[in-house]
Task: structure prediction
Amino acid sequence: MERTFFVALQPSDFRYLKRIRSWMHKDNPFKTDETELNPDLAEQPESESYQQSEHIIRVSSTIDKVVLLPNGRFNRPKIERRLRKSQFVLILLGENTERHPWVYFESFAAQRRLPRFFIRIPYTNSPIPENLKHIKQIAFNPNAIEKLFRIYDENGIRALHSYGFELHEKTNLDDTSPNETTANNHQNEVIN
Result:
């Protein structure tokens, strides 16, 4: 069984993608794709795959060599193909994230009802982009990502999608403004 997720990030946050991939490798000792990560973005592997018992975990990202073209533009058909194969999308939120083309990834994933979550990179405090305020934040640790896979494995894509919008639905019941409540909840309720 293949378990796939897509990571949207800025090239400057590459080291955090490496950390996520290392978590998958640590928990999944049989690496099926021997391509090593290279800090030179032009040399990025197509994706990284790891074997764990009956599961293969595939991590794709916006800076993989077939997705990010040498001219710095994105290969949209390749991104769309990878997004279609993913169980969920993780958006890394770091410094100056609002300058990244999140709108495209978020809107494409939303149109296909693909569950989306964001992870704030440790020790960053840039504001949450407006189009991400309704998305649930998860902690920057391997247990949080594994929890997403457990929800998917046990209950399917609908449960994962519901889990991602649980916070947003609670917000609609409050008397405060949705944007204020969502921002407060994101700061106070990080999923581990």
The radius of gyration is 16 Å. The first strand starts at residue 2 and ends at 8. The domain at 2-188 is CATH 3.40.50.2300 (Rossmann fold).
